Amino acid sequence: MKISLLIVVTLVMCSPTTAQVDSTLFKRTQQDTSKLLLNMDAVYNRPFLSVSKLPVAVGGYVEANWQHLGTDGVSEGHQFQMKRLTLFIASTISRRIKFLSELEFEDGTKEINIEFASIDFEFHPLLNFRGGIVMNPIGAFNQNHDGPKWEFIDRPISATQLLPATWSNVGFGLYGKLYKNNWVYAYETYLTNGFDDQIISNSENKTFLPASKLNQDRFEESFNGVPLLTAKVAIRNKKFGEVGLSYMGGVYNKFLEDGLVLDEKRRHRTWAIDFNTILPSGTYMTTEWTVTRVDVPSTYIQQYGNKQWGGFFDVVQPVLRKNIFGFERSVLNAVCRFEYVDWNAGDFIETGDNIREDIVSVVPGISWRPNAQTVIRLNYRYNWQTDLLGNPPSKTSGFQFGFSSYF
């Protein structure tokens, strides 16, 4: 499977150059900056390279880094990582029919995933149809996750360990936007395949939504025949910023098999709020917080939580804008991320004591952008992680250095 995907990508990327080597054939697509952009626009708000009159445009981004981290004084030493290589292929089939795909190679080629592959039919600004492999719009990061857009090497813990980052499924839905003066209003709603019982039956031994990403069958069949509903509304003002409210919920267990009732329907529900803005000083702030409730069977022990919550808060402050090493208009930023995740927000029945299983993280750093599409990052990570019994937290700390760039 991996070999065939590599062959397809190689043919797409290389076939235009066999005709004629002429730099005038290649052209970067220009993004529309005249309108207010939302997180939901991230899927198209990327640089693409078009070749002459070919009907497709290509692009992508790459991420690599070094890190030296230790937990309670124990370290694995220097580690070099090739986080991901992501390829985009887009095509305007006609003026109001568009196709876009996103293929990601993680950890070298340890994982190869089709994260997005959909066709959009544009009927009206307020009514558009999307079908295929869609990105479920829960929170903001799941939609707007490209590495070059972020000043931090690691993705937020809440996006990867609480929510399943880059969570996508096969399905259909509607989306639309309305522009009015300095405001834009938008919505998205999709019905897709969804989660399975790995939420509570996994190697993490806790309630863990990201475990369902291991179920590759979700791209060809539903685990229980009940659609996953994901819906989001967002508002953006030119001066105030963007705020989004989203919901994702459905049945995660198999309750019926060949007409035989196996169990009652057990549901999961996630709510998220996200916000981003740019202050007059140029300070950029973005945050996302989520709450998840899961119907955990009464036969499970209390380490499997029925309520989880967490999020992150990023602050990016430009401190220098000038020509650096010949890169005109490059920007040097001071950055900091604050994170919190609680996988079990509840109390022990026997004692009434708080069930912990949480993590607090602070990530200060600096980033340098030689241009808008490339970022070089230096982060210092410090985590405090507490087990469910509330024992003294394990402490992880260390430096990370790397880059990410569109191409």
The CATH architecture assignment turns out to be Beta Barrel
Strand order across the biggest sheet?
3-5-6-7-8-9-10-11-12-15-16-17-18-21-22-23
Structural class: mainly beta
Helical run tally: 2
Number of strands: 23
Residue stretches low in confidence (pLDDT < 50, at least 5 long) are 1-26
Distance between the termini: 25 Å
Q: Helical amount among residues, as a percent range?
A: under 10%
Which CATH class? Mainly Beta
CATH homology-level superfamily: Porin
Radius of gyration: 22 Å
Give the helices and strands as they follow along the chain: HEEEEEEEEHEEEEEEEEEEEEEEE
Could you tell me the mean pLDDT?
A: 91
How is the biggest beta sheet arranged? 16 strands, antiparallel, barrel
3D structure, described in words:
This protein has a single domain, classed as Porin. Helix content is 5%, strand content 55%. The protein contains 2 helices and 23 strands. The chain has a 16-stranded antiparallel β-barrel with strand order 3-5-6-7-8-9-10-11-12-15-16-17-18-21-22-23. It has a two-stranded antiparallel sheet with strand order 13-14. The chain is globular. Residues 1-26 have low confidence and may be disordered.
